[in-house]
Amino acid sequence: MNIETAGPRGRAPALGLTLLLLACGADAPAEGGAAQEATAPVELSEPISASGLSIALPAAWNRLEPRSAMRMLEAGIPGSGGPGEISAYYFGPGGGGGAAANVERWKSQVVLPPGAPEPTTQSRESGGVRRTWIELEGTVKASTIGSFPTTDLHDGALFGAVIEAPGGPWYLRAVGPGATMREQRQAFLAMLDSARPEG
């Protein structure tokens, strides 16, 4: 079973590297990473355990009741550009189509601006967990399965991530106005880095 997801274009991999280095130490850089920059720490909520995964949402995000049995969690993402949303999906061990297929699906859901560089998939592995993500910015197409957005979101951004660990994978799709998602990028990556197999 496949899921719908996407994220902002990979134009600033250094920021993602910086957050992950600060959160987990400089000995395990993200693939394709660049020079480090100073970033403020992200406050996370208490970890949530769902479908065999423990993950901590950013404290500023608003946890919501999942609207579908396919979604293990949902949250609202605040920001200056207007609200965004994140959903996490789990289809059982080995389910959901895999990282590469979902990255391609997320890419198909965002129309990049003319001349934009090809988005770059990034990944990081630590603590027995591999995180693969892509960031896309442009026009996020209206969802066909009832996810956000319900109409085309111009100047939007989509962050898609796959968390691979024993019992996984899990899929995360965060979408919102570009300004909001740029503000929340560091928080998104801190959340990914908090992921651990439950138990």
Itemize the secondary structure elements and their pairings.
Elements: H1 13-24, E1 48-50, E2 53-55, E3 62-64, E4 71-77, E5 84-90, H2 99-108, E6 110-111, E7 122-126, E8 129-140, E9 153-164, E10 170-177, H3 178-183, H4 185-194, E11 196-197
Antiparallel strand pairs: 1-2, 2-11, 3-4, 4-5, 5-10, 6-8, 7-8, 8-9, 9-10
Give the low-pLDDT segments.
1-30, 32-37
- CATH topology value: Protein Transport Mog1p, Chain A
End-to-end separation in angstroms reads: 26 Å
Largest sheet data: 8 strands, antiparallel
Overall geometry comes to: globular
CATH superfamily: Mog1/PsbP, alpha/beta/alpha sandwich
Question: H/E order of the elements?
Answer: HEEEEEHEEEEEHHE
CATH architecture grouping: 3-Layer(aba) Sandwich
Beta strand count: 11
Structural class, judged by helices and strands?
A: alpha+beta
Tally of distinct domains? 1
Helix content: 10-25%
Strand % is 25-35%
User: For the record, what CATH class applies?
Assistant: Alpha Beta
Radius of gyration: 15 Å
Number of helices: 4
Mean of residue pLDDT values: 83
Would you write up a description of this structure?
The chain is an alpha+beta fold and 199 residues long. It has a single domain (13-197), classed as 3-Layer(aba) Sandwich (Protein Transport Mog1p, Chain A). Helix content is 19%, strand content 32%. The chain contains 4 helices and 11 strands; from the N terminus they run αβββββαβββββααβ. It has helices spanning 13-24, 99-108, 178-183, 185-194, and strands at 48-50, 53-55, 62-64, 71-77, 84-90, 110-111, 122-126, 129-140, 153-164, 170-177, 196-197. The strands form 2 sheets. Strands 3, 4, 5, 6, 7, 8, 9 and 10 form an 8-stranded antiparallel sheet that branches. The protein has a 3-stranded antiparallel sheet with strand order 1-2-11. β1 and β2 (53-55) form a beta hairpin. The longest helix is centred in the first third of the chain and has 12 residues, at 13-24. The protein is globular. Residues 1-30 and 32-37 have low confidence and may be disordered.
